[in-house]
Write a structure and sequence with these properties.
Length: 182
């Protein structure tokens, strides 16, 4: 089994069930490989988790950007981006998010990706404003505001306050931002 195949299996498993309660032996058994083969991903369980989480966000970002690149309308690129982010987060279970929050190295990967997402929102706002497709706004402010909400989604504050899972919270954020920029 190649490393990428292992990562794909780990991503699917972690998104469905989380990772905190799974030992290396159980991971190997569930993926139908040996522990030695599993260690091709990384030399320890903690590093396997981080590599898998990093792989998940990298693959998700590539799919999101592909959807944005396919959108020719500057005014719709921001909506496409936020909807794509929500779609990519949809398969992740509550257990996955709980484990992310509880394991600092994986949480750092999530936080970094949230930061990248906020920067990307800012870029898309600038593009939309420059094209005349979005009303003139301070893109830095929009990016900072979106970053705050994304961070609150990531930490579970939004879910605690609203009951919305991360993917649905991103959809609601998309609606809010787009209504404000129309």
């Amino acid at each position: 089994m190649r490393r990428e195949e292992l990562l794909a299996g780990l991503r699917e498993l972690f998104l469905r069930e989380g990772f905190a309660g799974l030992g290396v032996g159980e991971l190997a058994a569930r993926l139908r490989c040996s522990r030695t083969t599993l260690y091709l991903v990384a030399p320890s369980k903690e590093q396997i988790v981080v590599a898998t989480v990093r792989s998940y966000f990298k693959n998700a970002a590539e799919r999101v950007e592909a959807r944005v690149a396919a959108c020719d309308e500057p005014g719709l690129r921001l909506a496409t981006y936020l909807e794509a982010v929500a779609s990519e987060l949809q398969p992740a279970s509550e257990a996955f998010y709980t484990d992310l929050a509880g394991f600092a190295p994986a949480n750092e990967v999530y936080q970094a990706n949230t930061g990248f997402a906020a920067q990307r929102v800012q870029q898309l706002v600038v593009e939309g404003v420059e094209a005349g497709a979005l009303r003139p706004v301070n893109a830095s402010f929009v990016g900072a505001a979106v970053a705050q909400v994304m961070s609150a989604i990531q930490t579970g504050e939004i879910e605690a306050a609203t009951g919305l899972a991360d993917a649905e919270a991103y959809r609601q954020l998309a609606d809010l931002v787009l209504a404000g920029l129309a």
